[in-house]
Amino acid sequence: MTRFHTAGPTQPTSSSGLSRRGLLGAVGAGLATATLAACGSGDSGGSGGGKEIVFMNQSRGQAATLKKLAQQYTKQTGVKIKIDDVGPADFLTKLQSSSQARNMPDIYSVVDGHSMAPYYKAGWAMNLTDQLKGSWGDTFRPATLKTTTFGADNPQHVKPGTYSAHWETPALGVFVNAAMYKGAGLNPDQAPATMSEFIDQLRKIKKTGKGPFWFATSLSNQLIQSYGSNYMSDEELNATFVGKNSWKSEGWRKTLQLVVDLRDAGVIYNGSIPNGNGDNPTVEKAFFNTQGVAAIFDGTSAVGVARATAPDFTDFRSFPLPKADDGTQTPRLVGGAAKGAAVNPRSKNADKALKFLKWLTAPDQQQAWAEGVPLIPSAQAVSSKTIPQQLTGIAAKISDIQLVQNQILEQVNTALQKGTQALVLKERSVDQVLGDLDAAQKSA
Amino acid sequence: MRRRSRVLAAWLFLAPALAMIALFTVVPFVQGILLSFQSWDGVSLDSPFVGLDNYRYVLDDTQFWGSMKNAVLYGVVGLIVANAVSMVMALAVHRARRGSAFFRTVYYLPGVFSTVVVGVMFSWFLDPNIGIVNQMLKTVGLDGLQHNWLGDPKTAVIAVAAVFVWYHWGFGFILFLAGRQDVPKELYEASSLDGARGWSQFRYVTWPGMSHVTGIVSVLTLLSGLQIFGTVQVLTNGGPAGHTEVPTLHIYQQAFQYSEYGRAAAMSVIFGLCLVALACVQLWVSRRLGGSTDSRTEKGR
Hints:
The complex is a heterodimer. In chain A, 43% of the residues lie in helices and 10% in strands. Chain A contains 19 helices and 11 strands. In chain A, helix 2 (63-77) packs antiparallel against helix 16 and helix 10 (220-228) crosses helix 12. Chain B is mainly alpha-helical. The radius of gyration of chain B is 24 Å and the shape is globular. Helices cover 74% and strands 0% of the residues of chain B. The chains are: A alpha/beta, B mainly alpha. Chain B: Belongs to the binding-protein-dependent transport system permease family.
């Protein structure tokens, strides 16, 4: 069934003249038609008329750098770029409204694969697979390409291919407050070799009266996925995410045990993990602003947050999540791709937008992204000197990012977040949580 | 002929409003019901009919039905606590000889804020480490009462309910105040002559005189409590471990996180029917307890 219908021809009026009801009906229908006509553009193409490219931008933190680069591009090529800074809160709503009004921008930011999949399925993003097979694709880190490509087994049923190009390769790891570490007699420049060593460090910090470790409920899936790489290969992780392998396996059992170990060691700040819409900002505030907690699990984008909200606090370090004592694999980081964009193939400016996207992701421009935001660029050729000192610990292992093509399904993600909280609260056992995850995977 | 033209003119004047109501209320309502029989990801141009599949899914969804328990709790808290607080405040302000304008403004103020602002504000107030509530307890020497209000399942539900009461009392307050001012002064003079004071005056004059307002406020507060969303989403997002989850949040997740708009629509239809049923029960009880909502005007005729 098609959601959009064209109005049928209006019925001819009676030859005996317009009755009162008929007149009222006609007035009502006229008003409704006029209103509906005003609401829809009736054009399935892009919003640009050919002279300028419209870019719908999701990121607040990267808006200034994007604007600067767009101005530079206009100077170089004469092509005007109009940036529609929607912001993270309204981005998906506005993108959805634009798709329903068939008035999509020429180029637009992309967020996670699950949220973007409906747009790719509906043909609102250019398939870049062939474009990326050439020299353009060679400039990217393999993890960036792998994690943004929809494989044949993707649970979202998107036609296999790559629909977006990215200029950021994020990764998640541990950030520690150097002064608090030193205050507890620990060396912040020496990353703990194993998880048990890390937990011992956190115990020592707790004795100094400081909050030891915290992570947001919304990042618990990344924490779990990151730690799961100690016990499972990327293929095994991917097989679980697409429903081929059960969550009730020894690997996931050992992985979730991490939450129990952290809980039993008493090193989770406040004895609970924050929830609510702003859970990660709460964690970041406790680390960067009020400095009440010594260590947090967060993404590399946190450094940008720190620069914006606590510019005076720079004395912190980062390192990958420590490896499991009984791990059977070399642990790999969770990450791969963050900020990037997709091109609307139905736009009259599709070719121009694609050229702009290629230019935005070229190593020269990625240097500007890295310095301006800051971030870890997705281009292999960008100098590591541009990476902020606080990120060097994680950046050193950036080549060890998990090459997992599919993400955890949103339904399973919700169950995992709830399960992690239940483990911290001692309300459910590891096996019960794994059963919940299997049930969520099946019902999705 | 003249009458006909006046009727026509009246319909023409009504036409814009009717068109707007049809466009923004009737059409979305009907589309919502239709959507509950379809599968749609929110973007696709195709939305195939799936029969009763969405309803079958909802009937088996234990989390959705489990979250109803919290909705009922918030509804009851809204109905009893929020209305009691609002009425007490309204009666107090009505009796106040000085500063009634100030208190009218202050008590109504919470309802002016957006739910998101209220949620963010209270998440700061209730923060276990730097929140004003725990800091105040510490300042007055009650360190032992400091608590992780939103992180502990035992207090999270109460904290959310308290925020809901604070946010909604202004609405009930202003209506109760108007209702109280509407009760004829002569009734109080007559009851005084009969020896009625305090409680008996409230029981036999104030309460029946305000029954029409009480009925309306009760239904609206009950529905607000059952439909609570913004406060929960910002404060706890249903956590910890689902202890504060409500049906509206579950519906939101289905639509905007899982892109399952058909299932979300089916949940909305079922939840809507539950609300209508509860509102009918509430109206019936109100009428039984306080007489007809129009009793005052009926008797006055």
